[in-house]
């Protein structure tokens, strides 16, 4: 904040501070110092008063001391020489009989943050570790951490580390917790404080003495410990059970985190823990602090990825309060959508209907989208509500409804008749480009069902000169060409006009190129155009995938109780812009896209068709797969064998450029019986399958390839799925490490070996690709 | 770990800033404020990230309490801590407002110094902190004539002083030391209702979140005993007493509460620390012991001239002795409503068309139990269509029910031990707020 008369104030304060009359009266002196600190916190530069303040620090008045120290710590880095003067006073204070003064001096000494003063600080800190008063020891312990961070790269003094380890047995719980924190910082490079069995049990036994903050810290540190036996593990778990249902949300969350990391290999135990924790989490959802509510809601979404039915009986708790902020309402709606079942659907829809007319447009649009998602399973009721909303004739509502309908039709083609009859007259209310694009898409694809479609398009074409959004223009082009294929007589004239305008006058290159493309396509003949443009109108498989399988807990356990779940929604609410559904299928897919479509990595499956254009906003690595350039089977074979032989040559230079990885993925045994399904699924995510062994032969193989783009450079991935069957007699032609091992689980799952070869090498992309592949196989096997 | 902490006024003025680890860029506060103002609306997301800066904030008393932290920090811990810090500041300064923060900045810096060291939370217990804090709180309470109304003729106590004024508990906890403030203890039972009533008048959902708060201004109080209704039962299965049981679904207690007499006699024993603390929290879901406090009978129609006629009858079903205060019914109306004319049944009520909320707000200062009010609103809405009726959405009621608890939970007694030598005052207060009370039309 700019502070008027700053210099004048500083001069006046300087005079007051050096006035002997002021100095002799403690109260006046203190008030002057107070004014200095006030000016400082208001943003006035008072660094000029440093020497006067150093003098003011030699006082018996503790309040004044605190104020002066605060000032000195803020400005010490600007005046390293003068700061040396303070050290004397501080060291004297470290000998003071009053423990409060000692801790104050020690804390501020370590807060000066001047590397040149380190040598003066070490001795008082060492003494501080053995002080009688706990409050001094607390400060001294953390002081060492500050000291080490001040001189990064300096040698670690083993004596100090030992002393800190031994202080873990200090009678004061805060000292103990501070030791954990300090050791963690000092030993950062070695992986933090070492947690062995005796320390673990010591910490667990003393947890009751700590306050909630200390407990959270201990629980966090204990995540590093791996119990040696199951007995020990269950001892620890039963000790922690009480804090798992603690009414204090931080303790509850930290305990669950620890549970999940301890029981990573015991899904049943983790599952039970999640169920136990649901009651305190629900209580936190009703907390008085709305920020706490929000945090709890985000974590409930995380839990529901693995236990979809967790909150089923409590669906009413997620009804929105009318005064709640929009960010809470949106989360609650996302949760409500997940909880829909035959019994509560009418109640939930009633509730959501109420939010559709919310004053806040974001909330209203989120509610409409939520209804659309319920529509995938209960289309009739939802369409009735959506059609009713169109009657309101409000632009933001109409836009959201039309977009939702487009998404719905893509998943449930049987809704198209209702949607077509609802579309009439919408174009007058639509204002924003997203909504108009959705309308145009619907008119293009289902134009034969909407009697007024050509007239609506004509209005758009007449206004194309004043249209600013290139997205709308491109959608308009596609729509009119599509409509021309079904209703040529009515649209021929306007198609010609639009193409002429776009090719001759349009300045936007994308629009012009698209128009040229359609022009040449039409020249090639109607049948060719039809082949290109009238691809799929819907993708019912997406709808089936909505009822998606529960994720394994390990997939999200590491992000539990971090800021991650709170942030995710923030990016999602920003991705208001959406493209047409089929752009998804035809354009290069992205990983983010895919995982959303398959509903596997995101908490709340958004409408199934989201959006290649939203990826720019998402922080994930933008891995894009594509099928072009195509590779013929012969080429594939050549490259596969070439890559195959490389490692044996031990050519260091070459192998840098090339990567071979293997991984086992489990999927159901039925896979090998239906290669068509697998091929279709892979194609959906732009992986081309080249060759299959006939079904039910062993070893069963699939060869496939894809290109990754977007990451530093594009690269080619060749891959093989290998299922060697029960009797494992691999021909010796394969390398030993490629020998597949498979196990049949009780549930009929088998392990399929994936061999990937990539050129040039890009490990990140391979990792991302593997997760895509895993998702595909997993989805197929659970279907 | 908290790297920096600052308090920002709603207008964006930095009131306090502290950097715990010396890692701050200069303009962390400005970065945050720019992000907040760049967003539409008044509801910035709780977490905002910019490169490696992660801002977490809570809103309390209109101020932003912001901490920056690392990506792997526990949001539960940071948010709980920020709330706790705000509560501490409120305890020590006697109130929470931009002004009180500004006047007591030295005290708050002192507090921060003790609460956080190098970004790690040390302690937030006011008993521990009391020994370390030296500054005096500056009370920001404005002079008010109402303070004088408690003093009778020639300084004699009037009848009124038997009831604690609502502001009585808003004072700094440390003032007692020198100024000889009265030694007092307040036990508040505060409940929040969230209710949804369907358009046919059927109760769709009713939740109550309640808590018992103790606010203590006693220099030497070793133990208090709080007796709750003896017939209080917890959980669905358990029933105590005959018939008129008071029931909650779930309850949890503060760490320091001893529960040895709770199972037999429903007595909580604790040694309160100075300042405010929540002793017990409880929830009740879907099964209120009494009828919901308000019912609404709406009639919505269009008259021939295209005006929207809203006729509302609001009935208060509280027991006759109780009454609701500060009732405000907010009725969403169609977009484009331009003017409102109203007929209200008494002059102290008021109604107003709030254009930015698209709602009619009907204010009723006091509504006694067992009575009924009616109001007639006529709205001019150009281009009113039948579909617009959809927009006359759920009515939201906000209210305050003093001396009333929705669950029926009562404090039987409040005993201090050892018996206080100095005259001490004990106050028990009940209040029920509306968290969200919506009635569909």
Automatic annotation (TrEMBL), chain A:
GO terms for cellular component: clathrin adaptor complex; endomembrane system. It is found in: Endomembrane system. Keywords: Membrane, Protein transport, Transport. One of its GO terms (biological process) is intracellular protein transport. It comes from the Eukaryota. Belongs to the adaptor complexes large subunit family. The lineage of its organism: Eukaryota, Metazoa, Chordata, Craniata, Vertebrata. This is AP complex subunit beta. It is a peripheral membrane protein. GO terms for molecular function: clathrin binding. Gene3D superfamilies: Leucine-rich Repeat Variant, TATA-Binding Protein. Residues 627-778 form the Beta-adaptin appendage C-terminal subdomain domain. SMART domains: B2-adapt-app_C. Residues 568-590 are annotated as: Disordered. InterPro entries: AP_beta, AP_complex_bsu_1_2_4, ARM-like, ARM-type_fold, B-adaptin_app_sub_C, Clathrin/coatomer_adapt-like_N, TBP_dom_sf.
UniProtKB/TrEMBL annotation, chain B:
Transmembrane segments: none annotated. Component of the adaptor protein complex 4 (AP-4). Adaptor protein complexes are vesicle coat components involved both in vesicle formation and cargo selection. They control the vesicular transport of proteins in different trafficking pathways. AP-4 forms a non clathrin-associated coat on vesicles departing the trans-Golgi network (TGN) and may be involved in the targeting of proteins from the trans-Golgi network (TGN) to the endosomal-lysosomal system. This is AP-4 complex subunit mu-1. It comes from the Eukaryota. Belongs to the adaptor complexes medium subunit family. Keywords: Coated pit, Endosome, Golgi apparatus, Membrane, Protein transport, Transport. CDD domains: AP-4_Mu4_Cterm, AP4_Mu_N. The keyword Transport applies. InterPro entries: Adaptor_comp_med_subunit (IPR050431), AP2_Mu_C_sf (IPR036168), AP_mu_sigma_su (IPR022775), Clathrin_mu (IPR001392), Longin-like_dom_sf (IPR011012), MHD (IPR028565). It is found in: Early endosome; Golgi apparatus, trans-Golgi network membrane; Membrane, Coated pit. GO terms for cellular component: clathrin adaptor complex; clathrin-coated pit. PROSITE patterns: MHD. Residues 182-440 form the MHD domain. It is a peripheral membrane protein.
């Amino acid at each position: 904040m700019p502070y008027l008369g700053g210099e004048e104030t500083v001069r006046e304060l300087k005079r007051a501070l050096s006035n002997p009359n002021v100095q002799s009266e403690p109260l006046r002196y203190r008030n002057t110092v107070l004014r200095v600190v006030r000016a400082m916190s208001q943003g006035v530069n008072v660094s000029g008063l440093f020497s006067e303040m150093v003098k003011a620090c030699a006082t018996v008045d503790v309040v004044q001391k605190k104020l002066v120290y605060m000032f000195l710590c803020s400005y010490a880095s600007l005046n390293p020489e003068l700061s040396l003067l303070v050290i004397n006073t501080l060291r004297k204070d470290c000998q003071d009989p009053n423990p409060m003064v000692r801790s104050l001096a020690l804390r501020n000494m370590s807060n000066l943050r001047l590397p040149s003063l380190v040598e003066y600080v070490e001795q008082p800190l060492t003494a501080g570790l053995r002080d009688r008063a706990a409050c001094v020891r607390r400060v001294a312990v953390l002081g060492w951490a500050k000291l080490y961070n001040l001189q990064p790269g300096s040698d670690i003094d083993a004596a100090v580390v030992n002393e800190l380890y031994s202080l873990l047995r200090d009678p004061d719980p805060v000292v103990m917790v501070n030791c954990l924190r300090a050791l963690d910082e000092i030993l950062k490079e070695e992986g933090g404080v070492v947690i062995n069995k005796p320390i673990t049990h010591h910490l667990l036994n003393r947890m009751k003495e700590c306050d909630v903050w200390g407990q959270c810290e201990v629980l966090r540190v204990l995540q590093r410990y791996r119990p040696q036996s199951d007995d020990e593990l269950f001892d620890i778990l039963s000790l922690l059970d009480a804090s798992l249902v603690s009414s204090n949300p931080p303790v509850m969350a930290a305990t669950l985190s620890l549970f999940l990391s301890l029981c990573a290999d015991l899904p049943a135990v983790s599952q039970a823990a999640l169920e136990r924790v649901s009651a305190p989490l629900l209580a936190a959802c009703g907390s008085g602090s709305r920020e706490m509510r929000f945090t709890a809601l985000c974590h409930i979404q995380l839990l529901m990825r693995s236990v979809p039915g967790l909150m089923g009986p409590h669906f009413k708790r997620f009804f929105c309060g009318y005064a709640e902020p929009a960010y809470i309402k949106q989360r609650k709606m996302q949760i409500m959508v997940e909880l829909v079942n035959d019994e509560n659907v009418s109640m939930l829809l009633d509730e959501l209907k109420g939010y559709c007319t919310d004053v806040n447009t974001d909330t209203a649009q989120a509610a409409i989208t939520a209804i659309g998602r319920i529509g995938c399973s209960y289309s009739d009721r939802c369409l009735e509500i959506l059609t009713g909303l169109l009657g309101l004739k409000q632009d933001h509502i109409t836009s959201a409804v039309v977009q939702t309908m487009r998404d719905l039709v893509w998943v449930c083609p049987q809704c198209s008749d209702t949607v077509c009859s609802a579309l009439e007259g919408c174009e007058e209310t639509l204002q924003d480009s997203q909504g108009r694009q959705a309308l145009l898409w619907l008119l293009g694809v289902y134009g034969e069902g909407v009697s007024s479609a050509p007239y609506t398009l004509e209005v758009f074409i007449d206004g194309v000169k004043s249209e600013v959004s290139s997205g709308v223009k491109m959608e308009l082009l596609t729509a009119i060409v599509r409509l021309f294929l079904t209703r040529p007589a009515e649209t021929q004239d306007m198609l010609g006009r639009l193409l002429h305008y776009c090719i001759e006058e349009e300045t936007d290159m994308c629009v012009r190129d698209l128009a040229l493309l359609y022009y040449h396509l039409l020249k090639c003949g109607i049948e060719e155009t039809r082949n290109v443009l009238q691809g799929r109108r819907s993708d019912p498989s997406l709808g089936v995938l909505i009822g998606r399988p529960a994720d394994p807990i390990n997939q999200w356990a590491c992000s539990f109780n971090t800021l991650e779940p709170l942030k995710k929604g923030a990016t999602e609410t920003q991705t208001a812009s959406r493209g047409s559904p089929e752009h998804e299928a035809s354009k290069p897919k992205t990983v983010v896209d895919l995982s959303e479509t398959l509903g596997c990595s995101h908490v709340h499956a958004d409408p199934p068709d989201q959006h290649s254009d939203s990826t720019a906003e998402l922080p994930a690595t933008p891995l894009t797969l594509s099928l072009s350039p195509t590779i013929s089977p012969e080429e594939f074979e050549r490259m596969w064998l070439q890559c195959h032989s490389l490692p044996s040559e031990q050519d260091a230079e070459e192998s840098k450029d090339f990567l071979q990885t293997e991984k086992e993925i489990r999927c159901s045994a039925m896979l090998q019986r239906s290669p068509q399904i697998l091929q279709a699924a892979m194609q959906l995510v732009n992986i081309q399958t080249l060759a299959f062994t006939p079904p039910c032969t062993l070893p069963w193989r699939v060869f496939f390839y894809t290109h990754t783009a977007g990451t530093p450079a594009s690269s080619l991935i060749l891959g093989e799925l290998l299922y060697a069957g029960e009797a494992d007699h691999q021909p010796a032609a394969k390398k030993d490490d490629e020998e597949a091992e498979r196990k049949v689980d009780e549930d009929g799952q088998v392990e399929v070996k994936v061999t990937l070869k990539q050129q040039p090498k890009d490990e990140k992309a391979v990792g991302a690709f593997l997760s895509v592949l895993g998702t595909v196989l997993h989805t197929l096997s659970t279907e | 770990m908290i790297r920096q902490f600052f308090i920002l006024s709603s207008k964006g003025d930095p009131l306090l800033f502290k950097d715990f680890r010396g890692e701050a860029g200069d303009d962390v506060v400005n970065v945050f404020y720019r992000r907040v103002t760049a967003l539409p609306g008044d509801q910035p997301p709780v977490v905002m990230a910019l490169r490696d800066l992660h801002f977490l904030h809570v809103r309390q008393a209109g101020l932003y309490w912001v901490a920056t932290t690392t990506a792997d920090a526990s949001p539960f811990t940071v948010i709980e801590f920020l709330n706790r810090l705000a509560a501490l500041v409120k305890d020590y300064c006697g109130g929470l407002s931009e002004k009180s923060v500004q006047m007591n900045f030295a005290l708050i810096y002192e507090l921060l110094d003790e609460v956080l060291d190098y970004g790690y939370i040390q302690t937030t217990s006011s008993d521990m902190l009391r020994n370390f804090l030296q500054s005096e709180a500056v009370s920001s309470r404005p002079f008010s004539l109402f303070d004088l109304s408690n003093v009778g003729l020639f300084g004699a106590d009037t009848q009124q002083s038997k009831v604690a004024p609502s502001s009585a508990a808003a004072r700094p906890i440390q003032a007692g030391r020198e100024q000889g403030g009265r030694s007092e203890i307040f036990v508040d039972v505060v409940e929040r209702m969230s209710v949804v009533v369907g358009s046919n008048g059927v109760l769709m959902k009713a939740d109550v979140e309640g808590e018992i708060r103790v606010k203590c201004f006693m220099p030497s109080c070793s133990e208090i005993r709080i007796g709750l209704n003896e017939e209080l039962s917890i959980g669905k299965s358990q029933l105590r007493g005959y018939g008129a049981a008071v029931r909650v679904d779930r309850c949890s207690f503060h760490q320091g509460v001893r529960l040895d007499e709770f199972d037999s006699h429903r007595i909580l024993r604790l040694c309160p620390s100075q300042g405010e603390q929540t002793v017990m929290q409880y929830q009740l879901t879907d099964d209120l012991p009494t009828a919901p406090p308000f019912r609404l009978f709406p009639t919505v129609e269009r008259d021939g001239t295209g005006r929207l006629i809203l006729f509302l009858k609001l009935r208060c079903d509280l027991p006759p002795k109780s009454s609701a205060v500060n009732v405000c019914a907010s009725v969403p109306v169609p977009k484009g409503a331009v003017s409102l004319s109203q007929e209200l049944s008494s002059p102290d009520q008021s109604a107003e068309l709030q254009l930015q909320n698209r709602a009619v707000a009907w204010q009723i200062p006091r509504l006694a139990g067992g009575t009924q009010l009616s109001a007639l609103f006529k709205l001019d809405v150009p281009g009113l269509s039948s579909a617009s009726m959809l927009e006359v959405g759920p009515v939201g009621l906000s209210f305050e029910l003093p001396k009333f608890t929705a669950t029926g939970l009562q404090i039987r007694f409040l005993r201090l031990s050892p018996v206080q030598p100095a005259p001490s005052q004990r106050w028990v207060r009940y209040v029920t707020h509306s968290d969200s009370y919506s009635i569909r039309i």
